[in-house]
Structure formats: C-alpha cells, structure tokens
Amino acid sequence: MYSSSNESTYQFPPEFRIRNQAKFLVKKLSVTLGEAQEMISYYYQCNSWSELMSFASISVAPLELIKNYDSVDASDFRNEIQKLISSGWKSNINAVKKLALIPHSVSHSIANNNLESLYDEEIIALHYHIFEGEKEPQYDIYEALSHADNSILTHIRHRKNRKHPRGHLTDHRYGFTMYYMLQLNGNSIRLIIRELDTLFSPPSLEHTHFKKEWFVKHTHGYLKHLINCLEVEYTSGEVVLHRVDNHDCIVNRSSNRQHNPHNMNSLGEYLISQGGIVEPLLDKNDTRLGITLAFSNN
User: Fold this and answer.
1) How far apart are CA 168 and CA 79, in angstroms?
2) What's the pLDDT tens digit per position in 121-173?
C-alpha cells in the first residue's frame, strides 16, 4: 500500500484493479463474490466493500483511517522497472524465462513483459529487491525474484542447494505471507509452513477473520494452490501446516500453548477430512504438531 504525494492521504490503486483482485479470489477459491469483496476490503484496511469503493472512486482516503501503508507511488516504480528492462540493463531475463512460470506469478508476468498485470504491492516489492534503497540497481531481476516472486517454485530454485533451505514468501493475490522450511530428496519435497499469516485481517478487530465463513476455504484453497505448483516439478511430496496467524493448527495437549479460536479447530478438522494427517512437525521427537497433506504424481 502506498500514500500519495500529499502525506495526509492514502492513494488507492485504480478501481478496476481492486475489482479484479476480488474476481481472482472467486475464480481460485471456493468463495462467493461477497466474501471475496470482504477479503479485499480488509486487505486495503477498510471495514467493508462499500467503504473501499467510496475511497477508491476518488482514489484517496484520509491517512488516519488507514493503519498500514508504504509512502511510495507504485506507478512510478512500475515505469522505472519497465524503462530499466528496456534500456539494455543486464536484467538476466533469460534466466527468468527458464523458471517454472506459474500463471499469475510475478515471474510469469515479467517473463512475458507484462508488468501491467502485476499488483501495486508486487511492483513495490520487486523494486525494493532490485534497488534495496539505492539509486542504482543492486541486483538483477532473476536475483530479486528470489524474494519478490509469489511462486514457491522460484523460492525453491534459489534455496534448494543451501544447507538449511528456508525463507519467507508473500503472495498478495491469495492474501498470505508465510515462513517455510524445505526438505528435499530427489524428486520428492516436503514443504513445512511454520507460520502462515493472512493479509485479509479486519483493520479494527484483530483475529476476527477466524470467525468468517471464508477463513477455512481461504486457507485450504491456498494449500491446494501450493500443492498444484509443487506437482509441476516434483513427483511426490508433502505440504505441512503448523501455525496460522500465531495459532497452532493442532494443539498438542501436553504443551502449554493457548487454546485455539473455534474456526482454527474447524480448519484442522477440515484438513483432516481432506486426507490430512496429524504428525510431529520435523521428526518423531518433535513435540510440535502439523497437518500433512501429501501428493503423488505416480
């Protein structure tokens, strides 16, 4: 999110981009248009779709009404990156084109020279990882995507040869940020999501999104998306979910952790009904529990 040149107001993306974000969620998740609109309203720190549309129609809102923002203009960054790519700069774009290009990923848009399809927040993140606050580029686009891409396959490509492969991924389209660890064995992979945090939290009441009808559908839909991505390059594997918004998916009765909100329990029950297995997070001696969803192309 970003502010306008007037530091007392918040600058919204064009209204058509906001509407397209809601349509994307309807298409990719088992949510209604009304639910998707509520989710996107929370993403932009508004309490309702009508409030969001009232601000978006005039492009700005009083800054005191918006809790979180970045004081930059995404349109300027979009133009700067486009000019940089067209200038003959050593962007390493050929390496980007060799990635597993998942539709709706940042890498897919860049490989197809379609920066206009990127969300403003994706542009802001990409610009940051290219320049890192300096006037001149510090990294080429391929390197910047190791942090800025929302494709888990790009993250794996950059980290799989590390001794302890792990990292953070933010997906503005699906509305999650996560901290993950990787365990790789040939054509098999185990993606351990230590923490999954929503970007669709209501601005006024913390953690009330747990009570929303779309909470379970949103989380399960994103896990299915991750599995679909992994199946592109791996013949088998597991996605293990540990925590969502600082709450364990499964509470170990012998631990001292807090009780879960009701819908967190509903999430665990639903994942188990979809074939999820409760097991120790990292190894048999680990007292922390996760829910494992397995896949196989065999």
Assistant:
1) 27
2) 999 999 999 999 899 999 999 999 999 999 999 999 999 999 999 999 999 99
What is the distance of C-alpha 7 from the center of its chain? 28
From the number of C-beta atoms within 10 Å of its C-beta (0-12, 13-18, 19+), residue 112 rates as exposed
Measure the CA dihedral 1/96/295/269, to 10°.
0
Please give the domain boundaries of the chain with CATH numbers for all domains: 2-65 (no CATH), 74-148 (no CATH), 152-296 (3.40.630)
Distance separating alpha carbons of residues 225 and 89, to the nearest angstrom = 34
Read off the pTM.
Answer: 0.89
Distance CA 257, CA 259 (A): 7
